Amino acid sequence: MLHNPAWAASVLILGDSLSAAYGMQESKGWVQLLRDEMPSVEIINGSVSGETTAGGLRRLPSLLDSATPDVLVIELGGNDGLRGFSPKQLKSNLTKMIELGQSNGATVLLTEIMVPPNYGPRYSQMFNQVFHDLADDYDVALIPFFMTEIAPQADLMQRDGIHPNEAAQPKITQWMKPWIIEATDNLD
């Protein structure tokens, strides 16, 4: 690939509190750490704490217009699950986001989301299956849920037991970085 030094790939992260540096300075969050490690890539953080897939879908058209990203990373669904929203609605919203991203020329990456086990095996399985089905249906990369490695380690979690702490952010950065590199390297 011939690199044009004047051209930098742009990546839009559309997420919730897990990507919005909840409970810490934004400069300590994984998205900023990724920016620091990948200075040749423009990384736009369109994440909002508490965001659902419905909220992300409402905001996505204007984000795509203003950012015109080459890569769209969708890290949403956790708040849908915590609120017990139907997997059918989750799938509908994520489908529309993937289609919007792709129709705007972006390579879409979908981050797998899982709900806590206390939601019951049936709901948890149906919820998680949505991400796998969409990755297959739309031929998008499915990034395994980074919280599966972080949540079991109390020293990497905030007191609420839901959000990763500052110590977890470099680990999330290293989890996400290869996926972002692969997506940006394959743009030509």
UniProtKB/TrEMBL annotation:
Pfam families: Lipase_GDSL_2
InterPro entries named in the record: Ester_Hydrolysis_Enzymes, SGNH_hydro, SGNH_hydro_sf
Annotated ranges, domain SGNH hydrolase-type esterase: 13-168
Lineage top rank: taxon: Bacteria
CDD domains: Lysophospholipase_L1_like (cd01822)
PANTHER family referenced in this protein's UniProt entry, alphabetically: THIOESTERASE 1/PROTEASE 1/LYSOPHOSPHOLIPASE L1, THIOESTERASE 1_PROTEASE 1_LYSOPHOSPHOLIPASE L1
Protein name according to UniProt: Arylesterase
High-level lineage: Bacteria, Pseudomonadati, Pseudomonadota, Gammaproteobacteria, Alteromonadales
